[in-house]
Amino acid sequence: MVKFERRLVRWLLLLLTLSLFFSGCTYLKNRGNDAMDIIDIGITFNNEWKPDFGLYFDFFNVLPIGYANVDGKMIGWGNRHAGWLDYNERSWGVIGWGSEKRGCGEFNPLDPHQARPDQRTLAERPDFNVGVVRMASEDNSPPVPQFFECNKMIFLGWIGIYNTCRPGDIIDFILGWTTLDIMGDDIAKAKE
Predict the structure, then answer these.
(1) Residue spans per domain, the chain
(2) Where is 163: in which H helix or E strand?
(3) What is the pLDDT of residue 68?
(4) Could you please report the per-residue DSSP string of 22-83?
(5) Which of 41, 100, 130, 174 is the most buried (most CB within 10 A)?
(6) Other CB atoms closer than 10 Å to residue 87's CB: what's the count?
(7) How far is Cα 64 from Cα 74, in angstroms, rounded to an integer?
(8) Cα dihedral sign for 96, 132, 86, 33?
């Protein structure tokens, strides 16, 4: 019986190795992309000498609190890119009512984190209604993956900190190894 189990384990390892080898680069690229989606983090800087202000938190698009009006650059990790990225945020929220237009790096309308399926032809970053009350009363909700994000940003004058954590993408990364794509971002972003 032990001999059979060892042989079975060897065959399973061989099949796993062959499936990874013949799956091509797309499979492993998507796993890397899923890992990069988990967090956006960086230090933000103003583009001009005029000071900007931002103190904004949004918990899963249902509880936006604060205000932010920042155009600048970010050094860090965001939207599957690292380095010196463009950064803008025009957001406000009063508990259950608010609006968001934010992002770092280049806008990609095929990215399900940045635009809804009906917005695939947009040339610039859209703004969305946030807050449980506003989303229930008006029709301009964010893309579904944004409901699994927790956004935080503080910007005072010429420098700030930006952080977005996506617990849903942690699950997407883990399940992605089994080829499940619960966030629906593997195919769309692979076209970049």
Answers:
(1) 41-190
(2) strand 159-165
(3) 96
(4) HT-HHHHHHHHHHHHHSEEEEEEEESSSS-EEEEEEEETTTEEEEEEEEEEEEEEEETTEEE
(5) 130
(6) 29
(7) 22
(8) positive
Regions of the chain with pLDDT less than 50: 189-192
The pLDDT, as a whole number, for residue 29 is 81
Which of 67, 65, 54, 55 lies closest to 132 in space, CA to CA?
Answer: 65
CB 107 within 8 Å of CB 124: yes
- Percent helix / strand / coil, the chain, rounded to 5: 35, 40, 30
Closest CA to 81 of 121, 116, 113, 41: 41
Report the largest interatomic distance among the alpha carbons of the chain, rounded to a whole angstrom.
76
If you search the block for the tokens 């899923």, which residue do you land on? 34
- Residue pair 101/70 in contact (Cβ under 8 Å)? The answer is no
Provide the pLDDT for residue 146.
86
Instruction: Please give the single-letter amino acid code of residue 6.
Output: R
Digit-coded pLDDT (tens) for 33-86 = 888 889 999 999 998 888 999 999 999 988 999 999 999 999 999 888 889 999
Two tokens, residue 133:
């009350």
Q: How far is CA 44 from CA 21, 87, 157, 191, in A?
A: 40, 7, 11, 29
